[in-house]
Write a structure and sequence with these properties.
The complex is a heterodimer. By secondary structure, chain A is mostly helical. In chain A, about 60% of the residues lie in helices and about 0% in strands. Chain A has seven helices and one strand, in the order αβαααααα. The chains are: A mainly alpha, B mainly beta. Chain B: This is DNA-directed RNA polymerase subunit.
Chain lengths: ~140, ~180
């Protein structure tokens, strides 16, 4: 574990445990949690069942902040972004915020600017275009 | 950030729930795990526990002396939520105070954006108080705000996280 003051997501310092963990985009979590909630309601046989608060709040959040809603396009987003040698964390932030231009992308994911990682402006531009295409055809 | 993690966990199955039929054992373990998962809410290291997705493996059970309960080491995958320092995310304003606003993001409700961290915004008093800057950009109850996490704190007694956030980078602030 990292000491709290060493943690810095903008430099991808989020602790070894989490770098290996799979980061999920809001759109993916929405699909997973909705399925889970239906299951829980189904199991209890009562559609008015109270869900645990943490789950309920998260579900509301991901529904509001999902950029992609169609299951196929959610899968596609991950596929498209996976081609760009991003860390899991970076991939999820880009998928969640869908930056509109290169400048914005570098601002919300500062680790993209790290030298030697091959993310020049051109590559980022291509990535954002690919993302836009998925959105267009959703 | 939502994460999919693999967690090792110990599940204790009371002697009376042990069944000769193997299938029932797996069910008891899952039920038990779900119960504990739901009551735990969050842990300091992993963040908020949202859902259990798969039971990956069940280890060799060990009988506990005296009670006869059996302890099974298991590994499962689940979905958690944790805010990291330096992370950029979006949240919803749920309270506007004179000194700043409170936001919620995922399961976390105590996310504080202080007035000091949004120097170009001024508090405007009223029935529905708002923060507004010279470009008439507004932060009010229900607004979506993109922020950067400055720090997080784990509260052991409430089993909750608090976070301090700011707007001190480009492309942060209210999102329409």
């Amino acid at each position: 574990m990292l000491r709290a003051d060493e943690e810095d997501a903008s430099e991808l310092k989020i602790g070894d445990d989490f770098l290996k963990a799979k980061c999920l985009m809001n759109s993916e979590v929405a699909i997973l949690l909705e399925h889970r909630c239906d299951q829980m309601k189904h199991m209890s046989g009562d559609s008015t069942t109270q869900l645990p608060q943490v789950l309920e709040k998260s579900l509301q959040y991901v529904k509001r902040f999902s950029r992609f809603t169609n299951q196929g396009s959610v899968k596609q987003v991950r596929e498209v972004l996976s081609r760009y040698q991003l860390a899991e964390f970076e991939l999820a932030v880009i998928g969640n915020l869908c930056p509109e231009n290169v400048d914005e992308a570098k601002s919300v994911v500062p680790s993209l600017k790290t030298k030697g990682r091959g993310h020049d402006d051109e590559a980022i531009e291509r990535l954002l275009n690919d993302l836009l295409m998925v959105k267009k055809f959703e | 950030m939502f994460l999919k993690v693999q967690l090792p966990w110990n599940v204790v199955i009371p002697a009376e729930s042990l069944d000769i039929k193997g299938l029932m054992l797996q069910k008891s373990i899952v039920v038990r795990l779900l119960d504990e998962f739901a009551s735990r809410k969050a842990t300091k290291d992993l963040g908020y526990l949202l859902a259990l997705t798969t039971l990956e493996s069940i280890g060799e059970g060990r009988v506990r002396e005296h009670t006869g309960d059996v302890l099974f080491p298991v590994v499962f995958s689940g979905i958690t939520f944790k805010l990291f320092r330096g992370e950029i995310a979006e949240g919803v304003v749920h309270k506007v105070l004179k000194h700043g606003v409170f936001l919620s993001c995922g399961p976390v409700e105590n996310i504080y954006l202080s007035k000091l961290k949004m120097p170009d915004y001024d508090y405007v008093i009223g029935e529905n108080p708002v923060f507004m800057n010279s470009k008439m950009s507004k932060i009010e109850k229900g607004s979506t705000v993109r922020f950067i996490v400055i720090g997080t704190k784990w509260l052991e007694s409430e089993r909750e996280f608090q976070a301090l956030v700011g707007l001190h980078a480009d492309y942060l602030g209210p999102v329409s």
